[in-house]
Amino acid sequence: MTRIEKLLTLGLASMGLLVQTGCSGSFDVPLGQKTPYLQGVLDPSRSIQSIWVEWGTPSDSSFDASIRPVDTSLVHVVLFLPDGSQAPFLPAAGIPGRFDVGVSILPESTYTIRGTVDNVAVTATVTVPGVLQVLEPVSDTIRLSAVFLDSVRFKWSSKQASLFVAQLLATDGSTQGLTVTSDSVDFIPVFRSADTIPLLVRSYEGNAAGFLFSSPPATSARGIAGFLGAVATGRRFTILWQ
Amino acid sequence: MTRRATVVLVAFLVSAENASAQSVVRGSVVTAEAANPIAAARVTSLRMMKTVTTDRFGRFAMWVGAFPDTLVVTFIGRAPDTVVVGNISTPLVVALAPAPVPLADVVVSGSSLSHGSDASTLSRWTLPADALRLVPAGVEFDPLRALTLLPAVSYTTPLSARPLIRGYSAEESSFRLDGFEIVNPYHIGRFFGALPGEAVDQVSVNAAPFSASMGGSLAGIIDVTGRSRPPRGKRGGATLSLVSASPWLSGGDETAWFGTARAVYLSALDVVSSKHIPYDFQDVYLGGAISRNGLPRAHLTAFFSRDHLLDQDQGTGMDWNNLLLGTRLRLAEWSASTLELSAAGTRFSEDATNVAARHSKIDVANRSSRIGLGTDLNIQLPRGRVSLGAGAYRRAITNQVRERSGPGFPTSDVALNQTEFNLYGEWQHEIGSMTLLVGTRVDAVGSHGVVQPRLYAGIPLTKSVTLEGGLGRASRLFYMIADPRSEPDVAFYDFWLPIEHNGASTPIVDHASATLGIVTGHLTARVSAFGSSAKGLGELRPETDQDAPAAAQFRFGKGRTRGLEAQVGLAAAGKGLPSLTLSYTLTTSERNWGDGWVPWSQERRHTARLFSQLSLGRWLLFSAAEAASGPPFTPVDQVVQVGIPDSTGLGRFPGYIFGKENSSRSAGTFRIDLGATYQFKGPWSSDMWLGLSVINVGFGPVAPTEVQPPDLSTTRVRYERAFDLPAVPTVTLRVEF
After folding, report:
1. How many Cβ pairs closer than 8 A exist between chain A and B?
2. Phi and psi for B122 in degrees, rounded to 5?
3. What is the pLDDT of residue A215?
4. Average pLDDT score, chain A
5. How far is CA B227 from the centre of its chain?
6. Which pLDDT belongs to residue A106?
7. A72, B260, B276, B403: which has the highest count of C-beta atoms within 10 A?
8. In angstroms, rounded to a whole number, what is the distance separating the alpha carbons of residues B424 and B419?
């Protein structure tokens, strides 16, 4: 074998090794397991507070938006109030996956849930944001006149809040437009539609903001995935197109 | 230090080394075509069987026992020269003519492999621009991307120009231009280096542990030496590629200058993206050299680069620029010692608007500047050398982060004004056939000081086998944190933080490495083992770390690396025969952010590279192949439906809950690049080089596997490669006239 043949042989053999090393198209992903997760938003405007406890979908399975409730016998969770008292979450009648407790929530107060889900210890804590102060616009009725698209300047504040959320609601109550911002002054875009549109403005603290408005969600519950968050009492405006 | 004190010190050290009957030969090694100083050239005395290495001015001094002696001068990409020296006091000027760069020399470059040579070059590779030009260009020649020749260097993907050195991120290494610190020398996100190819004379890569004269880096230092003189008989030239033009002009003799600029005339991004993204950049390099009697005495460096991406006033975009002004003076020179003074000012500015960072969109405004003086005293001894140095620099950093949207990337203002001092000393001594080097460096700012001891030893085991080893500590007295992931995003940003931010410890990395080098006939081989232990490392917390508070955007912890590099080079035995290098790198790099050790996000466990080169008349053909195991990634553990069914009216959408960090491995990557250069004479006695290359000629898989984000139509978790890279052809034309 000549020297050039040896070199070429070495080169080809090396290339084969390289292909073997690098060209493998497979990769390892562990098989998913069925584990529960928890979501809850405390709302001072409501007399009943709810959490939802569902099964996640293993990563190797297909998924959809349907509710996969955790059996009520596996959920034992208690809400600890700021004064040290506690109230258990109980299964909501006829609503699989939901657990309710009848308590009023105070702004700027801290609440904790503790318990077990599927025999796993769970804790989550939240501080409710302060009352939402909307400094602009002043009036509850906002008059707009643009042909196609207009905007409304909002100036707002709420202690402990991370995000302000403005929801334009359709006549059936569904969300027609959504603006999410952390700025204390921002503009809400509004497309011309019906003569009158309800606009609901709310503020969420960090746990809810991190889970509901992030991808991937930031989970603040401990023990299982999920969060206990809170929202400030919202304020409703009316958009009036002229 | 006064001249008298220096003379006394030299006299003491020389007498201590029993210099009787020895004389000093001084000289300078320059390129034959341009008289450019060649740094890191090896000068070997055949009678004494010892080697010294040229300094940044291409200068050397060597103690010789008897005359006549024969000096052999070598440097990669240059024909060796042999000089017989008598007992003369006039400094020598050795001009090395250009020669085809054999790939095997790249292997040798990583090891001193000679008795008595500078032991602190244990893990230093010095590559001339001609060697780097061998690597098939992607879009155009890029000296930073061409460092793929070195097994110690890896990249996240072929789209990246950020060299990762031995298991550490690019931010944990640092860049120098003519020895002066520069920050983020990149264009187009980090796809290309900001230094125009025509400006580059050579690039050295120093993997830690490096010389005590080097600091400000945790893992490695990439030092680009710029051109400062015209090639003989040439006054200008240019490189044209499909996307840019880089003209250069040069002139002078004893006082010489070189200037080049690069302008982009097509949207380079269109090459990798069908979307037209408004983008432009420019860069300018100016180098100057002052010599006396052919011996370099001073060097001047000026560099400016500017990038403009999208329009910030339109809602999103990024602008950044770099400025460097530096000078290095040979203040004094005695028979075997030199005293140098350097002064430099650098400024980096970066404004990013509405860029994604973790769960938020943020605006970032960064300013970094550094100005100061340094001095270096080098004393060549009959059986070694002593190097001493000190520096004082004023560093000013502002880092403003403004959250635009998202759940909690806190608005912050970091203002850092600090005076940095450094002091180092290094002593190299030959004990029998062994070369020993001990050094210490102290970096200090305010009340913080870090002592960084360094130790090297080398011994020839046989005539052709050398064993070397080194230990050393490295530190940097501020944090520079960037997104460690690969480069599909054009916009990028950094966070600058003072040391011990939020209780984090000062970044310190202890390194160890050992190298076995073999040179025999046409075969060159090198095997290096390396390892390190780090604390105080910082990085942007990945979004897959979902348990952390949204506002905890940074994390700090420990690191450790270990690995092995094996490289074999076969030089061509004759004309028309190919030469090859084959390298294999095994790297384990891990981080501990407080929850146990996890693989580093850019760890490539196995990397193999094959380069081959064939000269056929005026054609020079080159091929490169790289195969690597995939980097780790964090898998999805389960999918949840985000949103509360009946209270918010926000709807539900799928959200991923991730499993253990970096517990899965991406699929491997593989690519082949081909290149050819045709050299010919152009009009008016000009020299021309036509370059043809194709990157990823086989449309191979080059990107790591990533989890694809969910959307409302998603019904399964999808893992796909971050991008597909088609074969990228490149045509370049270089001309010198």
Report:
1. 232
2. -50, -50
3. 84
4. 87
5. 17
6. 95
7. B260
8. 17
Q: What is the rounded end-to-end Cα distance, in angstroms, of chain B?
A: 46
Q: What band does A3 get if pLDDT is binned at 50, 70 and 90? A: low
B407 touches A: beta carbon within 8 Å: yes
| Whether the predicted pLDDT of A8 surpasses 60 | no
Q: Which residues contact B8 (CB under 8 A, 6 or more apart)?
A: none
pLDDT at res. A26: 60
Cis before residue B247, ω within 30 degrees of 0? no
* Helices first, then strands: H and E counts in chain B: 3, 47
CA B308/CA B321 separation, integer angstroms: 9
Q: Report the pLDDT averaged over residues A207-215.
A: 89
CA of A242 to nearest chain B CA: how many angstroms apart? 27
Which of the 8 DSSP states describes residue A89?
Answer: -
Give the pLDDT band (50/70/90) at residue B112: very low
Other residues' Cβ atoms within 10 Å of the Cβ of residue B455: 17
**Where in B382-488 does DSSP place strands (E)?**
384-405, 412-431, 434-445, 448-460, 465-475, 478-482
CA B610/CA B672 separation, integer angstroms: 9
Residue B579, pLDDT > 70, answer yes
B453: which 2 tokens?
């001891």
Phi then psi for residue B510, to 5 deg, are -100, 125
Residues 6+ apart with CB under 8 A from B692: B675, B676, B677, B678, B729, B730, B731
pLDDT for position B486: 59
Tokens of residue B265, six digits: 């005339």
Q: Are the beta carbons of B351 and B364 closer than 8 angstroms? A: yes
Contact between B625 and A18 using a beta-carbon 8 Å cutoff: yes
Amino acid at B735: V
User: Is the separation of the CB atoms in A209 and A162 below 8 Å?
Assistant: yes
Q: Is the dihedral of CA B206, B210, B211, B213 positive or negative?
A: positive
- Helix residue ranges, H only, B226-331: none
Touching check for B544 and chain A: CB below 8 Å? Answer: yes
- A19-45 pLDDT, tens digit per residue, is 555 555 566 676 667 899 999 999 999
- In this structure, the number of other CB atoms found within 10 A of the CB of residue B306 comes to 17
Query: Looking at beta carbons, which residues of chain B come within 8 Å of A60?
Result: 717
User: Per residue in B405-453, pLDDT tens?
Assistant: 666 677 788 888 889 999 999 999 988 888 899 999 999 998 889 999 9
Q: Is B247 on the interface with A (CB under 8 A)?
A: no
Q: Which residue do the tokens 């302008």 mark?
A: B263
Instruction: Note the ipTM here.
Output: 0.89
For residue B541, give both structure tokens: 């917390």
What is the structure's pLDDT at A49? 96
Chain A closest CA to B481's CA: distance in Å? 22
Rounded distance between C-alpha atoms, residue A67 and residue A201, angstroms: 27
The tokens describing B659, both together, are 């499993």
The residue to which tokens 């917390």 are assigned:
B541
* A12 near B CB under 8 A: no
Q: Cis peptide leading into B98, omega within 30 of 0? A: no
List chain A residues with CB under 8 Å of B577: 3-4, 7
Q: What pLDDT shows up at residue A73?
A: 96
Of all residues in chain B, what percent carry a pLDDT higher than 90?
44
Whether B454 has a pLDDT exceeding 50, the answer reads: yes
Amino acid at B208: A
Q: Are A103 and A89 spatial neighbours (Cβ–Cβ below 8 Å)?
A: no
pLDDT at A36: 95
Report DSSP state, residue B54. Answer: -
In terms of average pLDDT, the best of B101-110, B116-125, B543-552, B571-580 is: B543-552
Question: What pLDDT does B460 receive?
Answer: 87
Q: What Rg value do the Cα atoms of chain B yield, rounded?
A: 26
Interface of B with A in 673-732 (CB under 8 A): 700-701, 705, 709-710, 715-717, 719
